[in-house]
Amino acid sequence: MMMPSIFGENLLSDWMDFPFDRSFFGTKETMKTDVREVDNGYELDIDLPGFEKEDIKARLSEGYLTITAAKAENKEEKDQNGRYIRRERYSGSMSRSFYVGNGLKEEDIHAKFENGILKLSVPKNKKNEIEQNNYISIEG
């Protein structure tokens, strides 16, 4: 429900749709993830609406695949005389980790970002390989 405003719009409407922690309003946003097991590994679809590819990092470290999404926005509107009608600043981040085992390297994992969804293909754990702390390239 939109609240009326003297400026003809609800000044909080776009703020209410920002993809970060909404616990003040009774809900909390997380990275909603679908995980499917396929013959040779796993496919993950992580919903990240409102984010751009540049906002997202995927990292493999000590057997954990960690996805981090961070965003900052600054909205500034002025009237005809240059006085502020609204100034808002948003910033925040969220992350989620998945244990994938110590046998994987970053080049084993394929990541693609399109239409607000990060798609990851993770092979089943390879034994006897040494893992390094390297970032994974995200296409999109």
Write structural notes for this entry.
There is one protein chain. By secondary structure, this protein is mainly beta. The model is unreliable at 1-28 (pLDDT under 50). The chain has a five-stranded mixed beta sheet with strand order 1-2-7-6-9, with no helix packed on it. A four-stranded antiparallel beta sheet has the order 5-4-3-8, with no helix packed on it. A hairpin with a 5-residue loop joins strand 4 (64-78) and strand 5 (84-99). It contains one helix and nine strands; from the N terminus they run αβββββββββ. It is 3% helix and 47% strand. It is elongated.
Quick gist of this model?
About 5% of the residues lie in helices and about 45% in strands. With about 140 residues, the protein is mainly β.
Mean pLDDT: 76
Please list the strands of the largest sheet in the order they lie side by side.
Answer: 1-2-7-6-9
User: N-to-C SSE series?
Assistant: HEEEEEEEEE
> Would you identify the regions where 5 or more consecutive residues have pLDDT less than 50?
1-28
